[in-house]
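Pasting as-is:
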Amino acid sequence: MEYEFLKIERIDGISIMKVSAPKSLNALNSTILREIGDFVENLDDTTRVLIITGDGEKAFVAGADIAEMANLNEEEGYKFGALGAKVFRRIETLDIPVIAAVNGFALGGGCELAMACDIRIASNKAKFGQPEVGLGITPGFSGTYRLAKLVGQGYAKEMIFTGKAIRADEALRIGLVNAVYEPEELMPKAIEMAQKMTENAPLAIKYAKQCINESYDLVVEDAMELESRNFGKCFATQDQKDGMAAFLEKRKPVFNAK
């Protein structure tokens, strides 16, 4: 499918989705959200890692489209927020790793999109924030949940209540991003990380991701049970058979997600 606001690139098991709406600094309107939803819902089976980034040098995603939101009523506002939350939850629950390569402004919906990804790396030009209260609204695409989950309630409340934007080095300090790079290094580093992931067993990654995502909201005994179950499932896969045989035979494994 052709998209109006997405640019798609594929490199050896890696898909790169670039949000491209340069006139609005890649701000998210309902059309863009639906395009993102359609793309992630129909990812090619050969995609082992997804990288999400923004088009241009200034913005990852500068926020949600204020022009679209300005005249919404309560029910329409709810539906717009629910659309974004649903799309971002689908990204979060993909069976494959998702890397956000944050190349510029990641504000409001842009910060929320990055937080729905498994890993965030940033350009040193990037800025992160949830400035919605300055517009008379709350974060609407699950930002209140994910920001507190990632950086703790104290930092989350400070960022959301003040609406301030933070630089990439501050985002690194509080754990919002994993690494910060020069702008020209960002995508090569994202691809390098993705390539390392494609070398490992995809089903094992899927099960490990499920454990990490779901354990956060489980009591410890249930989290341990989930891990033990998924650990056991790995032994029913061809990837485990070849992975361990390759280790013993001192060769590279061949992983086929079976």
